[in-house]
Design brief:
Rossmann fold, 7 strands, 164 residues, two-stranded antiparallel ribbon, 5-stranded parallel beta sheet
């Protein structure tokens, strides 16, 4: 990939503008650790959502758990609200195969039955293996095989996209 990556802040602002009309008073944001939580924190503040932020660690729900093993930094899942019949905006940083989102939805259903789940991702890089598509996307970025895109947060809290 030779073109420069877009600024994460610009993508976040565009996402917030697209999400705002779809929000209801009961909408709760749930970020997937770790990058999805960073994105969800930013969106929650920008959108003025009062409901506390929910966070998911999907480590035990991944379908490649037996191959990858346990991530060394398992984070707790925190859903400080009832998800039953509530609209959920599930947030992740990068959407690739769809397997992370499938695992996140499985995790959510262990806590209740959401009214609706919508998906917001900062970057959709294509390459889906499951029929999962985002409702809100900051950018679609095509990458060559063997390359990955990652969201990082610097010491000042700024979110930055990198290709590896």
């Amino acid at each position: 990939m030779n073109a420069p990556l877009p600024e994460a802040a610009t993508l976040l602002e565009n996402m917030a503008a697209a999400i705002r009309p779809a929000l209801t008073a009961d909408t709760a944001l749930v970020g997937i650790h770790t990058g999805g939580v960073w994105v969800a924190e930013w969106l929650r503040k920008a959108l003025g959502i009062k409901t506390p932020l929910g966070t998911l660690d999907i480590s035990f729900y991944r379908d490649d758990f037996s191959q990858r093993g346990l991530h060394p930094e398992v984070k707790p899942t925190q859903l400080p609200f009832s998800i039953d019949d509530r609209p959920i905006l599930l947030v992740d940083d990068v959407l690739y195969t769809g397997r992370t989102i499938r695992a996140a939805m499985n995790t959510l259903f262990d806590y209740g039955r959401p009214g609706v789940i919508r998906l917001a991702v900062l970057v959709d890089r294509g390459g889906r293996q499951l029929p999962i598509q985002p409702d809100f996307t900051g950018a679609k970025i095509k990458l060559p095989a063997g390359k990955n895109i990652q969201l990082q947060r610097n010491e000042q809290g700024k979110l930055i996209l990198h290709v590896q």
